[in-house]
């Protein structure tokens, strides 16, 4: 079908192809910046382009109105799913971000919101630094973490590098949450409001023990991953360091066209024979 009057965005000039390219670039920050924000980064320029090219006629304006309604519906759906995306740590970040602009209140806030906490009786609405962390992690996990920085510091599991949801302690009296891309969310001090800002130096980073990356079980989804799962359903990946058994790091070279399944079976048989001869037992 030809372009009626040269008003449709063309592939050669960018159009949808350029939009898809921008989407793929934005996708790497999908969870860190928020799903809706990433999606709008793509859709807004496309809608603007559509207004410029199609909006010159009444039919074009009507068409763009329908497109905008469709985009609005899709963004609404993404927004409804956003707090479930990206894992528990990212859900904690999303919850902390939802409180940006709430006043700092020493002793205020808690797992049920900014009006909960020591300051509740005084009618003060806000969070202090540690209660914001408690609120965010409660929203992400349904579990209540320790209330104060002094309780949180020995409780978290220390990690070498921050990841979304990690708690950072610049000193014993303050805590903030890593939100990704070198940024943090925090309730900073009296007179300020919950904010997202550049990350600062910390004594250490930590994660709630129940949200540790070394949880012992991950899930391999059906289909092609870094490893192919042909079972037709989720396949648990068990960390033998947590659940017992022996760990091996093995490299197997298979010639082009070789039988990968047969090679894997041979490796398993070799390990079993090695352990039998050395008096150890293969982990079932």
Task: Please name the defining characteristics of this protein.
284 residues; alpha+beta; endopeptidase fold (from Nostoc punctiforme); 3 domains; 6-stranded antiparallel beta sheet; two-stranded antiparallel sheet; 10 strands; disordered N terminus
Structure characterization notes:
- With 284 residues, this protein is α+β, with helices and mostly antiparallel strands.
- Residues 1-17, 28-33, 214-221, 225-229 and 233-245 have low confidence and may be disordered.
- It is flat and about 75 Å long.
- It folds into 3 domains: 15-82, no CATH class; 87-207, Alpha-Beta Complex (endopeptidase fold (from Nostoc punctiforme)); 254-284.
- Strands 1-6-2-3-4-5 form a 6-stranded antiparallel β-sheet, covered by helices on one side. Strands 7-10 form a two-stranded antiparallel ribbon.
- The chain contains 9 helices and 10 strands.
